[in-house]
TrEMBL record:
The keyword Hydrolase applies. The lineage of its organism: Bacteria, Bacillati, Actinomycetota, Actinomycetes, Micrococcales. Residues 32-224 form the Metallo-beta-lactamase domain. SUPFAM superfamilies: Metallo-hydrolase/oxidoreductase (SSF56281). Gene3D superfamilies: Ribonuclease Z/Hydroxyacylglutathione hydrolase-like. This is MBL fold metallo-hydrolase. Keywords: Endonuclease, Hydrolase, Nuclease. InterPro entries: AtsA-like_MBL-fold, Metallo-B-lactamas, RibonucZ/Hydroxyglut_hydro. It comes from Arthrobacter gallicola. CDD domains: arylsulfatase_AtsA-like_MBL-fold (cd07719).
């Protein structure tokens, strides 16, 4: 695999698989210039989006990704820094005038937390429905004034259903060991999910995207956990979040905030342990919580992992050329 600088525009490959770290920043805080968490997986010119952090709309356009080539979207969890720009992305990538979507694309994501706030109407499907309703004035105007298709018929949403074996026992403070399960498939890719630990948020998912060219795993937000090892085992590329606890400990933060960082995110050494146990050849750190130099992030991972380590920057592209799937897609 090789990384490319965003400042050198690249044409979309006619064939192959690549991953673009559109945004790498963590949290609803602006500490630097980097866009929020968002990742694109490109396969044979079509692409799939994972999360919609701040800045994804411009980042995707700058990377040469056009909505007309979007196949499906996946949301790891419903924290605002992973979904806040979802409506903006589709409103700017909709219809033929902007080379946007003209055929339906589904957004797959967490359903309602069964132990959440009483009366809440959470979940991905409800969120998307409400967002489209909130922008109904703009949608209606453009349908009638510009001849665009109805965006409400193009942006679909589906709550990811948990396997029956874990649905009754899993919650924000308990993530049982499980195997990855299929959530989406087309002629180019298979996408599997697994529950990760990001308390008290639930459900929270990591995703594995496999094609005939290889496989990439995206952790979502998670503490170090066995399910991430299960999801990433044998993958060609692991994109994993990381937190610098020392950075936050040095700030005057509330105890609740510090505890969240400690129990809900993975330290750099923890990422190294997950990668080593999963046997992946290359780790890319993205969704970096707290500040550290690239050398400091890398040194932390290196304590438990001797493979390749990259600290992602927005717009990096990683070509995936791993072992082919046993059966053709």
């Amino acid at each position: 695999m090789r990384a490319h600088d965003m400042n050198k525009p690249l044409p979309e490959p006619a064939a192959g698989m690549s991953v673009i770290t559109l945004g790498t920043a963590a949290g609803p805080a602006i500490r630097g210039p980097h866009p929020g968490m968002a990742t694109a997986v490109v396969v044979d010119g079509s692409f799939y989006l994972v999360d919609f952090g701040l800045g994804i709309t411009r980042a995707a356009n700058s990377a040469g990704l056009r909505g007309e080539n979007l196949r499906a979207c996946f949301i790891t969890h419903l924290h605002s820094d992973h979904v806040a720009e979802l409506p903006g992305y589709f409103l700017w990538n909709w219809g033929r005038p902007v080379n946007g979507i003209t055929t339906p694309a589904t957004v797959f994501g967490p359903g309602t937390d069964p132990q959440g706030i009483p009366g809440e109407n959470g979940g991905t499907a409800a969120m998307v429905e409400h967002l489209l309703e909130a922008f109904s004035y703009d949608i209606n105007i453009r349908v009638h004034d510009e001849g665009r298709p109805d965006l409400r018929e193009l942006v679909l949403a589906a709550d990811i259903e948990l396997p029956a074996a874990v649905a009754g026992t899993a919650h924000g403070n308990h993530t049982p060991a499980m195997e990855p399960f299929l959530v989406y498939e087309d002629e180019l890719v298979r996408v599997s999910a697994i529950l990760v630990e990001h308390p008290p948020v639930f459900p929270a998912f990591g995703f594995r995207i496999e094609s005939r060219y290889g496989s990439v795993v995206i952790s979502g937000d998670t503490t170090e956990c066995a399910n991430m090892v299960a999801l990433a085992t044998g993958a060609d590329l692991l994109i994993h979040e990381a937190v610098n606890l020392d950075y936050f400990a040095a700030l005057d933060m509330a105890p609740e905030f510090l505890n969240h960082q400690r129990i809900s995110h993975t330290t750099a050494p923890g990422v190294g342990r997950v990668a080593a146990q999963a046997g992946v050849p290359h780790v890319v750190l993205s969704h970096l919580a707290g500040l550290a130099s690239d050398d400091e992030w890398t040194a932390g991972v290196r304590t438990g992992f001797d493979g390749r380590i990259t600290v992602a920057a927005p717009g990096n592209r990683f070509d995936v050329a791993g072992a082919a799937l046993a059966e053709a897609l």
